[in-house]
Amino acid sequence: MIKLSNVSKVYPNGTQALKNVxxxxxxxxxxxxxxPNGAGKTTLTKLLLGEEKPTSGKxxxxxxxxxxxxxxxxxxxRRTMGFVxxxxxLFPNMTVFENVAFAMHVIGEPNKTVKQRVWKFLKYVSLxxxxxxxxxxxxxxxxxxxxxxRALVNNPKIVVADEPTSNSDPVMSVEMMExxxxxNDLGKTVIVISxxxxxxxxxxxxxxxxxxxxxxxxxxxxxGDENED
Length: 229
Ligand code: ADP
What we know:
disordered C terminus
């Protein structure tokens, strides 16, 4: 559950990146966040990551009050979230397997569990045959799928994907979106930040629109996704 109540963010230089945003995203929801450059999408992501604090208002995620969360608790909180960054943030000197395993090693999971789960999620994103390759040996779409496997490996409740279809051809975009839908079908909340209006319209999910820091629209397209895919 994500709950923002009257959230505003003013950066030290005076830029007001978010203005009085109030929104609830229940568990299991699938939400697109759209808006032009500078609308506040990245700022919202940073608040959800705990990288930035709101200037005013309240943010609760997965039972954590992000206004009050202690620095030492942030890593525990982040484990309830899986982030897929636009630039992947894969380690270039680690193989695909090691990149996904790293997220589990840092929290001290035993080797056997790590191996089992890494294989499970590499299969899930259809990249088990690439386990021993390095990120540079993969296509952009494949790298993104590795990042998705890494985001899933610690069993987060919420998955946030930042522009998961940018610089992708239509086949890659559909593959990625179908994976995100599959993850949502498992009961996880999925949040997709996107510029790709055609794709957003195609999926008929809830769409939050940010405009100049304001939440200007929150609607679910009529028709539902069950009918058209
Ligand atoms: P988006 O991701 O939708 O492009 P951002 O959240 O990056 O929007 O930016 C929202 C506004 O906040 C913009 O005007 C941007 O210039 C400003 N901004 C973003 N990060 C900072 C920062 N660290 N310091 C000052 N202003 C910032």
